Write a sequence for this structure.
């Protein structure tokens, strides 16, 4: 198994895509961090003051943006572990050196932790780099010494890592690269944000919204841009992590018993 | 001496829906020889190879390497080396990295990767991305991958595709060395002439079924010369043949003589004063034998071919 994981890590980091995508992730999150910090601190007068969080809560909300804004990146790089193999037909060579499809699946899921951690650290750091100077300059401080904030930043790295693993699990189901990227983009950019807003609007459905993957991720981070009150609108940290793991398990099992059972021709 | 590992294909059948790609196919491949696995496109060669390698599940029957299914062999790539398609590389990965990616699971070092690139003549292009490789270079890289684990069994699907004439000669020599070392070498091709200078044995399939398996000499025997003789007195012709001990077959309008050249027959007839009206070489070459064997006398075109 360790040789299989080593092989998968080598596959990930031996093409240029991982750092090209990481570059976009960094640029995007630095930009978003800066823009959000500006809009919270500069335009605070024009936007109904009662709604706006202040001080450490404001910092928390902005620092928690890494996952809801950037989760498309670890999802896509994770999915490529499978879709790249099918697109370039290297799946044949991969199964020749390890015919067990369980080991192939397991090694890919575990290997995606490596790129997930890299994306988690880069993404979380980017949001902080974009937002913290502005918060310190225009607002009430960057709060980078606060214990709560440090936990939040650590959880942000954890969640981004989990996204990469979920991306790999999704890739095991949707092995067509174009299809996987389109589904991930559509889900993360349209379906889930709209679903979270819509479902969250009514009390009856807001409980369902908590179980959407993005909401579960926010629960792990411990703060959400969508939730006015994290304690009532989100699951607990542990429950959020369990929901994310459940998504991974479901996709991975579908991948193993449907896609990976097929003949490789 | 290497471990002698044979290949046994035993009543192997694969159906894709209503199409039978491989149909009750049985043959064996012996160690220490190069065996050509021949058949027209769509005959089921690649499907058979993929079943041997555990990539495609047989509908029935078995394909065994050294008595075991591929997926039951521990560290299979160190026993069996295979190159299936020249196109299955990530274009953005370097040739060296393509090998390094598989090295941990085969159980070999990076040094072995360099060594294999050297062997196939790609040492200078090791760090270049495969996207920029020519078809011939991809074939060589595929071969390097197959050889990484120093396998006892080597399976190559259409390895001569895209190789230049020098490359083909080089491959031929390499395969000969492997066979002489006691390895089992199976090489598929849809063109007999491409491998006829390389192989010791041939396994010929058409429409998923075995049509011929023998040594190359066995195939040649099917292609021995055949000379048509005709003359006014057929009994004298037959007497002439009997006198020289020729093997003959009476056909409509004359006599066919096997294994003797037209010139020899003409000279003998002249010496014996036998009048000839026809002396024609109707012998078939090896390629003709191959075409004859693989063209379907029964139910042509009713059985569609599946991915070659």
């Amino acid at each position: 198994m360790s040789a299989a994981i080593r092989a998968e890590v080598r596959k990930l980091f031996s093409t240029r895509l991982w750092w090209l995508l990481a570059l976009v992730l960094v640029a995007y999150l630095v930009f978003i961090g800066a823009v959000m910090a500006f809009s919270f601190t500069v335009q605070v007068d024009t936007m109904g003051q009662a709604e706006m969080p202040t001080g450490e809560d404001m910092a928390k909300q902005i620092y928690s943006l890494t996952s809801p804004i950037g989760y498309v990146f670890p999802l896509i790089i994770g999915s490529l572990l499978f879709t790249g193999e099918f697109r370039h037909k290297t799946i044949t060579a991969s199964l020749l050196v390890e015919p067990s499809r369980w080991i192939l699946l397991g090694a890919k899921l575990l290997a995606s932790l490596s790129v997930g951690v890299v994306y988690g650290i880069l993404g979380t750091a980017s949001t902080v780099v974009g937002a913290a100077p502005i918060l310190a300059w225009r607002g009430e401080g960057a709060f980078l010494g606060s214990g709560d904030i440090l936990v939040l930043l650590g959880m942000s790295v954890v969640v981004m890592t989990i996204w990469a693993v979920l991306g790999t699990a999704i890739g095991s189901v949707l092995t067509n690269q174009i299809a996987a990227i389109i589904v991930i983009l559509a889900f993360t950019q349209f379906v889930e944000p709209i679903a979270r807003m819509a479902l969250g609007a009514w009390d009856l459905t807001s409980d369902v919204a908590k179980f959407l993957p993005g909401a579960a991720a926010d629960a792990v981070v411990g703060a959400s841009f969508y939730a006015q009150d994290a304690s009532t609108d989100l699951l607990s940290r542990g429950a959020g992590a369990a929901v994310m793991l459940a998504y991974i398990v479901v996709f991975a099992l579908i991948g193993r018993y449907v896609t990976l059972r097929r003949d490789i021709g | 001496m290497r471990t002698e590992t044979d290949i046994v294909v035993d009543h192997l059948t694969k159906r894709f829906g209503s199409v039978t790609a491989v149909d009750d196919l049985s043959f064996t491949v012996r160690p220490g020889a190069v065996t050509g696995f021949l058949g027209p496109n769509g005959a089921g060669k690649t499907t058979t190879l993929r079943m041997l390698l555990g990539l495609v599940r047989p509908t029935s029957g078995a394909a065994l390497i050294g008595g075991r299914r591929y997926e039951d062999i521990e560290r299979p790539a160190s026993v069996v080396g295979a190159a299936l398609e020249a196109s299955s590389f990530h274009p953005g990965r370097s040739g060296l990295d393509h090998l390094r990616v598989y090295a941990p699971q085969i159980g070999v070092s990076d040094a072995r990767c360099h060594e294999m690139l050297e062997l196939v003549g790609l040492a200078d292009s090791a760090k270049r991305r495969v996207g920029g490789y020519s078809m011939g270079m991809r074939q060589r890289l595929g071969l390097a991958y197959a050889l990484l684990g120093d396998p006892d069994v080597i399976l190559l699907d259409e390895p001569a595709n895209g190789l230049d004439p020098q490359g083909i000669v080089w491959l031929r020599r390499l395969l000969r060395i492997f066979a002489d070392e006691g390895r089992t070498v199976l090489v598929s091709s849809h063109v007999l002439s491409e491998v006829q200078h390389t192989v010791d044995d041939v396994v010929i399939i058409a429409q998923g079924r075995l049509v011929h398996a023998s040594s190359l000499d066995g195939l040649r025997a099917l292609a021995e010369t055949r000379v048509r003789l005709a003359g006014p007195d057929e009994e004298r012709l037959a007497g002439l043949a009997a006198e020289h001990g020729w093997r003959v077959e009476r056909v409509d309008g004359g006599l066919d003589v096997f294994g003797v050249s037209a010139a020899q027959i003409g000279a003998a007839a002249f010496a014996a004063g036998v009048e000839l009206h026809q002396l024609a070489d109707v012998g078939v070459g090896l390629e003709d034998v191959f075409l004859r064997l693989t063209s379907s006398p029964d139910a042509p075109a009713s059985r569609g071919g599946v991915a070659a």
